[in-house]
Amino acid sequence: MTNKNELVKKIKYHFGLNIYESKVYVALLAKNVASVSEIAELSGVPRSRVYDVLEGLEKKGFAMSKLDKPVKYIAVKPEAVIEKMKNNLMREAEERVSLISNIKVTDEYKELELLHKNGITPYDVMDLSSAIKGRQNIYSQMKEMLNNAEKEVVLITGAQALKEKIVFLKPIFENLKKKGVSIKIAASSNSTEGPMSEKESISLSKELGLPVRKVKLNMRMCLVDNKKMLVFLTPFQDEEKDFAVWINSNYLSQGLSAFINPIWRAEK
To answer: Pick from 12, 59, 167, 180: CA 20 to 30 A from residue 158's CA?
Structure first.
């Protein structure tokens, strides 16, 4: 069984309490119902601080006061605390999403868009490049690139990575097909999995509604309109360690496009 000090540390970490709150809550759980003096003795928190700590725990939903003389406090069971924390987090998340969505209709946002579009000073197209860390950040950039595609999209990736991206790729590709954008997809299994099977290729093609070409090319990249490219520099393993570069360059993109075009001319 976890010793008391370790339990206090874990409660502090998991429930977002400070050290005094954690000690008082553990003491309350041990007694279930206790007076201020009993809580001070059990927790080791100075009695002068226990009142403030209990008031904070009440507001957070960890304790309730019992109308006795002297006043006693009741510990709220951990299950109820977790449910309340979940509800609070969901409500806060919804409020944040609503707030972020509403930013787009503000005058300040329109100014930012205008500033980004026009720029303060002229820039060279080759300056438009950046390094992106973390898979979700890279996928966000990929979504933006794909949504703005006008003529052609080329996606080369691993089979497992493609499966993970289907949830956001499918609706984007459906919209692109309606716009008449050409979409080329190639996939391979990584070196430890061996080549992608015919069954796997057919399954991915069916799910995406587009042909998925089998290739022996161990790389991940996205090329849009022969001018914007996103290239992964790490294998598909640790999500947090994923690293990619985004480049807006007609010269480099057209050169890469010429290099990979034979993939779609070759026989299956």
So the answer is: 180
How much is the pLDDT for 191? 44
Instruction: Residue 184: give the domain boundaries.
Output: 128-265
Residues 260 and 146 in one domain: yes
More confident residue, 237 or 222: 222
Residue 80 pLDDT > 80: yes
What does the mean pLDDT of the chain come to? Answer: 84
**Which residue, among 58, 20, 15, 56, has the nearest Cα to 39 in the 3D structure?**
20
Decide if 255 is inside a domain: yes
Q: What is the 3-state secondary structure (H, E, C) of the chain?
A: CCCHHHHHHHHHHHHCCCHHHHHHHHHHHHHCEEEHHHHHHHHCCCHHHHHHHHHHHHHHCCEEEECCCCCEEEECCHHHHHHHHHHHHHHHHHHHHHHHHHHCCCHHHHHHHHHHHHCCCCCCHHHCEEEEECHHHHHHHHHHHHHCCCCEEEEEEEHHHHHHHHHHHHHHHHHHHHCCCEEEEEEECCCCCCCCCHHHHHHHHHHHCCCEEECCCCCCEEEECCCEEEEECCCCCCCCCCEEEEEECHHHHHHHHHHHCHHHHCCC
User: Is 64 inside any structural domain?
Assistant: yes
- At 17-54, the pLDDT tens digits run 999 999 999 999 888 888 899 999 999 999 999 999 99
CATH number, domain of 173, equals 3.30.870.10
- pLDDT of 197 over the 60 cut: yes
Confidence of residue 194 (pLDDT cuts 50, 70, 90): low
Q: Which two tokens stand for residue 96?
A: 């944040």
CB 132 within 8 A of CB 245: yes
